[in-house]
Design goal:
This protein is of the alpha+beta class. It has three helices and four strands. The protein has a four-stranded antiparallel β-sheet. Strand 2 and strand 3 form a beta hairpin. It is globular. It comes from Streptomyces smaragdinus.
Length: 108
């Protein structure tokens, strides 16, 4: 398995309000499309099933850290991104989150 030099994968761990799971799911559905529109590859949101009922994850990649930083800058002024941010703010479905930057293991 090869990876492109510089690929960065962002891992998000969310602590969510378990009573607002559907609000969080809508938030996730929006971001999958948005990340892809901005040149990333969204690997999906992963919602609680068994075990902890208030932890969710998301994974998405960009070709480089610079591409990710451009997405972050552009998302601050994009109306659809702002709507998604506002959904999370107004419903308070996200209590907190952690962001990690990962790189694929080169096994060649």
């Amino acid at each position: 398995m090869q990876h492109h030099v510089g690929v960065i994968t962002i891992h998000l761990k969310y602590e969510i309000d378990a009573d607002k799971l559907e609000d969080f799911a809508e938030y996730g559905r929006r971001w999958v499309g948005l990340v892809n529109r901005f040149g990333g590859t969204h690997h999906g949101y992963f919602l609680p099933s068994e075990g902890d009922s208030d932890i969710a994850y998301a994974l998405f990649s960009f070709p480089s850290l610079a591409a990710y930083e451009q997405y972050r800058t552009d998302s601050m002024t994009d109306p659809e991104c702002q709507d998604a941010f506002e959904l999370a703010r107004s419903t308070r479905c996200i209590k907190r989150y952690e962001r990690r930057f990962l790189r694929p293991l080169d096994v060649t």
